[in-house]
Design goal:
The protein has 511 residues and is of the alpha+beta class. 19% of the residues lie in helices and 26% in strands. It is built from 8 helices and 20 strands. The protein has a 5-stranded mixed β-sheet with strand order 1-10-4-7-8, covered by helices on one side. It has a 5-stranded antiparallel β-sheet with strand order 2-3-9-5-6. Strands 11-20-14-17-18 form a 5-stranded mixed β-sheet, covered by helices on one side. Strand 7, helix 4 and strand 8 form a beta-alpha-beta unit. Helix 1 runs antiparallel to helix 2. The radius of gyration is 25 Å and the shape is globular. It starts with a helix and ends in a 14-residue tail after the last helix.
């Protein structure tokens, strides 16, 4: 049997599968049929195709020491998918990342997640070779590194392009947000337009419709290509958020319908058609801001404080986290794997979390207010930046402000959730046992609001009311820990996260 006859039989098999379930990539058998034909055709054209593997990053896998670097600032409420990239040298690629020749491409083919509130595919500049003048901190600032890091790398962790999400992905659909789920897709990642054309032709030749092709650009204007030690290291990530059906979610992550391929010319090409650095789309901007909630929000804060009468009380400023990936790339500073589909707010409480203390997080339910598709607040251990506890709009937020604002028609658009060492007898409360966070550990709270429902990116945080964190401590139980070294600990945390200057405090008059 000739290769042409084998390919024809495989095409017939593929079409029969499509007619049964409308998918080309749903099962490993379906994807294998496509990959086998594509590999054979690319081999004839002078290209090697090798296959990588998927890895699900969950709250549980973030507890493993080897994943700590990728889990800093993780969203504990939903899984991520990462990839182990195949190597083209004698050495294994770094975990969940790789060095790339400019004449190469990576192809991700598969099926988007089942119905949810979000998914996003993002490629990151993970780290670069250290140069004198690099700094230690994040978000376009830091202290000069007088000595090279031990691994001689400067960590950037900034997105190279806006994510491919349900609002902009090319799939066979009616064009609406919710019709982009459970659909076949292809993402080609490359810095070479010639290679992109080669990949597209090869996929079309194995009967993959071009309507589902997506391009993820890795530009030589940003990335130092190569497979040598000094070359830049990049890697991709898929985020998901809040599935409609738990069983569908579990089935998807149990046997992820994704395959990742690395395509390399057998003979390195010197003539490159470089792709330009992709522009960023502006953030989505609602017609109105959230000032209509301000009076009720202030009332909520007053009522929470009344509830704390008789205990010591403290409130720290919330910051708008200005995670601008292009600035992080250009300034060679860390962006902590940001996502331009989200608006971020951060709060450093400035106090420890003793057994006689608790935090109350209050804020706007941005989903109910119409500014996000999903929203959450997470508590982090500042030493590791790994999430300890969290709450979301999906479960805990709605109704949590009612006891403070009875009869207020806007109460569903606000929330009030406490973090305690023991939530027995408390409603709307997140347990934080000492086993997960020590009594004298510094903490960070982060609020994230994903994807404006009327746009293709996250809402502009400048028009959103930030959350607030109020701390209460009963001094009759144990001596106060407010001043027991907390100031110095939090100063060190600020030096790591926001070393150059204070991140912009929110400008609303919150009283």
């Amino acid at each position: 049997m000739t290769l042409r006859h084998a390919a024809l039989l495989s095409f017939i098999l593929l079409h029969s599968i499509q007619q049964m379930n409308c998918h080309m990539f749903k099962t490993i058998e379906e994807r294998s049929a496509v990959i086998e034909n594509f590999t054979a055709l690319m081999d004839q054209e002078g290209y090697n195709v090798i296959i990588g593997s998927n890895f699900v990053l969950s709250k549980e896998s973030c507890e493993l020491p080897e994943n700590e670097f990728i889990c800093k600032g993780n969203n504990p409420d939903t899984p991520y998918v990462l990839w182990n990239y195949p190597t083209i040298t004698d050495e294994a690629e770094p975990l969940y990342s790789f060095r790339m020749r400019e004449d190469e491409a990576v192809v991700l083919l598969g099926v988007t997640p089942p119905r949810a509130e979000y998914f996003g595919f993002t490629m990151y500049l993970n780290n670069v070779h250290y140069e004198f003048g690099d700094v230690s901190g994040g978000y376009s600032g830091g202290h000069l590194l007088l000595r090279p890091p031990e691994d001689n790398r400067t960590y950037i962790q900034a997105s190279l392009e806006d994510p491919i999400n349900p609002s902009n992905i090319n799939v066979t659909s009616d064009g609406t947000f919710h019709d982009s789920f459970d659909k076949d897709f292809v993402i080609v990642t490359t810095g070479d337009n010639f290679m992109n054309d080669v990949i597209k032709k090869g996929l079309i030749d194995v009967d993959i419709p071009p309507e589902i092709f997506n391009l993820q650009t890795v530009s030589s204007e940003v990335v130092d290509f190569g497979i040598e030690t000094e070359a830049d290291i990049i890697g991709g990530m898929m985020r998901t958020g809040f599935f409609n059906d738990a069983e569908e979610r579990d089935n998807y992550f149990r046997d992820i319908p994704l395959s990742i391929l690395r395509i390399t010319p057998k003979i390195a090409r010197q003539s490159i058609s470089p792709l330009p650095r992709p522009p960023r789309n502006p953030r989505s901007v609602n017609i109105t801001d959230q000032s209509y909630l301000l009076a009720s929000y202030r009332e909520l804060a007053r009522e929470v404080r009344k509830d704390l009468f008789g205990v010591k009380e403290l409130e720290s400023n919330t910051k708008v986290i200005e995670a601008e990936p292009d600035l992080c790339i250009d300034d060679r500073t860390k962006c902590f794997f940001e996502n331009t589909d989200a608006a971020y707010f951060g709060n450093l409480p400035g106090t420890f979390f003793p057994s006689n203390g608790h935090f109350v997080a209050i804020g706007v339910n941005h989903v109910e207010a119409g500014y996000a598709r999903y929203s959450s607040v997470s508590l982090y251990d500042a030493a590791t930046l790994i999430a300890i506890g969290s709450f979301t709009n999906l479960k805990e937020m709605k109704g949590s402000a009612d006891r403070y604002l009875p009869g207020n028609p806007l109460s569903d658009q606000l929330y009030a959730i406490s973090f305690r060492r023991n939530c027995t007898n408390y409603s709307h409360c997140i347990d934080v046992p000492e086993s997960s966070l020590g009594l004298v550990a510094a903490t960070i709270f982060m609020e994230r609001a994903y994807l404006d429902p009327n746009g293709s990116k996250g809402s502009d945080p400048a028009i959103m009311l930030p959350f607030r964190v109020i701390y209460g401590e009963d001094p009759s139980l144990i001596p106060s820990l407010w001043k027991s070294g907390a100031k110095g600990v939090y100063k060190r945390v600020r030096d790591v996260l926001f070393p150059a200057q204070e991140v912009n405090s929110f400008q609303w008059p919150l009283e």
